[in-house]
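Input/output pair, single chain:
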Amino acid sequence: MAERHGQTAPDALLTRIGQVVMLHHGGDREEARRRLLDLWAEVGEDGDALHRCTLAHYLADTQDDPFDELAWDLRALTAAEEHEESRAARALYPSLHLNLAADYLKLGRAGAARTHVRRARRAARALADDSYGDGVRAAISRMEHRLGEDGRDT
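Output:
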């Protein structure tokens, strides 16, 4: 990203993704899914890994079928792994693994859910002590509780 006066220039595609996410949060799931899929087509399978990760992460949330949700969350994780050296990707890992834990739990695969909630807990060490980090850590704790986990790495 370009630097200007000590600040990072905004990423236009991430801004567009954020606008669609607001549409989804406003209740228009179908339109959000359509627009995110349009952006996915624009970025392409070989596009920027952070863009693909972010799009897939949010596309998963717009799916009606839990298997489709899992498929998009797996695409998001794969893209993040291609971009894993970046701080942005490391900050996404806890949420990505948490979403995968939730996907697997919906599908009745508690063992896989436990694996991903443990990965989420380990990845959460990279999160800042801010509202985002606190929120993700709280969500991990709730998932651990649902799964009967104690929050310790094994």
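The longest strand covers residues 3-4. Helices lie at 12-25, 29-43, 49-61, 66-82, 87-106, 110-123, 131-147.
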